Amino acid sequence: MDTEQATGHTRQEAYSIYTPREKWFIVFLIAFGGLFSPFTANIYLPAIPTLTQAFHKSTELINITVTVYMVFQGVSPMLFGTLADQIGRRPIFAACLFILCASCVGLALVPTNAYWLLVVLRCVQAAGSASTIALGAGVIGDIATPAERGGFFGLYSVGTNLGPAVGPILGGVLSDHLGWRAIFWFLCIASFTCFLVLITFLPETLRSMVGNGSIPPPSKIYRPLLPVLGRLSEKPNTSLAAKKSFKNPILLFKEWDVDVLLVINGLYNALYYSVIATMSTLFKEYYPGLSETQIGLCYLPTSAGMMLGSVVVGRILNVQYQRILRQLALSKGADSDTFDVRTEHGIADDYPIEKARIGVMPYISLVFAAALAGYGWCIQYSVNLSGPLILQTVVGCAAMANMTASQTLMVDWVPNQSSSVTACNNLIRCTMGAVCVVLMDVILRSIKPGWTYVLLTGVCLLTIPLMYLVMKIGPARRKMRKDKVLLEDERVKS
């Protein structure tokens, strides 16, 4: 019998030396860092009309700076996420924030006759800011057990969702009152503040380097300036450090169960962008009495819904994990208080982690689909503004709930490549989101908002069979990956 089956498992060596409060503090730190990817993208948007005048360029040319940002937002985490899985979270996190800060200084000082430099610096800015999301997911994979990950990803997603909520409003205020350069000076100060906070408090968490946190890091760059976390740690246990070998993140695309989950996540991100990216245009056309400021405030319900969805689904995932764990313990005749399904190489084969993570997603998808269809018809018939705003909140809540659940499962599947798989997820999400933004204008002109969002509702419903497919084939694919890792370990030992 496989010794890593859940039968007879008892609580193992502590997965992490950090106390629950310390873990929440670490998640808060990385959520602060993860804020910058969406925040940097959204705070820039209100300044586009001003930039067209300042640089004497057309709106189409200034929009290229948005396009290249999205391209590098998708590609750069593939590099930095992989580096973080190999050489450590802390130095790469600090490097990304430093790159972001430096690029913001350059953007704040860029001459208005150097449009090419604006484009280049936007690429650099995206490279620095976008990778922080993948790095944060890696940290959560390092410190959190599967039972805790849902809640931690919920809080972490709150940080990343603040960007779309406050970015456009703050960008508009800064651009109107202090000029467009003030946006970049603000980002410079904010990112440098985050840089200082992280190098002061954030410990290195990469398990191949520090194990569960009890192994001292190899050099000073991996140590916080104020090492206040993990001070009540146990003696170093080098057996808890995973073996370190380079793993190409591109190879994750060969895992077709991972691909299916990436497509599901990417589609929900695209469907979310179908609402958020067209909102200002549709509201200006169907609610002509709204001012620019009022339209900007209409973004808040969606972002509030996303933050609510991330927190609620985090709690649901933790409850689901424990409920299924108790059921499995009961079926094995074991004590649910001491029963564990963690193994050296991830989740035990007979624990249905797929069901625990995405079992609620089909039901959430039905709510999402209904809200999406209703939103389109509310816009087309210009019903009371409260109608589409309420439905926006539901769309944001359901979209983030599904994306958080699927993201958590990805990290459960490949915990030793948590930053890399998040980078792959980011690449697919950004690509699908960009394609959706391009297509939405054409579709809306052809069939109007009502039927456009009915069409998108059909796309949403098509993801439900894919979710059941993941729950069906996921356990076998997960076992295949674990067996492959075991063979590689035996080859290294021999």
From TrEMBL:
Record SUPFAM superfamilies: MFS general substrate transporter
Gene Ontology terms: biological process: export across plasma membrane
Transmembrane segments: 24-41, 61-80, 92-110, 116-140, 152-170, 182-202, 260-282, 294-317, 363-383, 450-471
GO molecular-function terms, A-Z: citrate transmembrane transporter activity
Lineage: superkingdom: Eukaryota
GO cellular component, one term: plasma membrane
Membrane topology: Multi-pass membrane protein
Keyword match Glycosyltransferase: no
Subcellular location: Membrane
UniProtKB keywords: Glycoprotein, Membrane, Transmembrane, Transmembrane helix, Transport
Ranges where the Major facilitator superfamily (MFS) profile domain occurs: 26-475
InterPro entries recorded: MFS, MFS_dom, MFS_trans_sf, Tet-R_TetA/multi-R_MdtG-like
Protein name according to UniProt: MFS general substrate transporter
Source organism per UniProt: Cylindrobasidium torrendii FP15055 ss-10
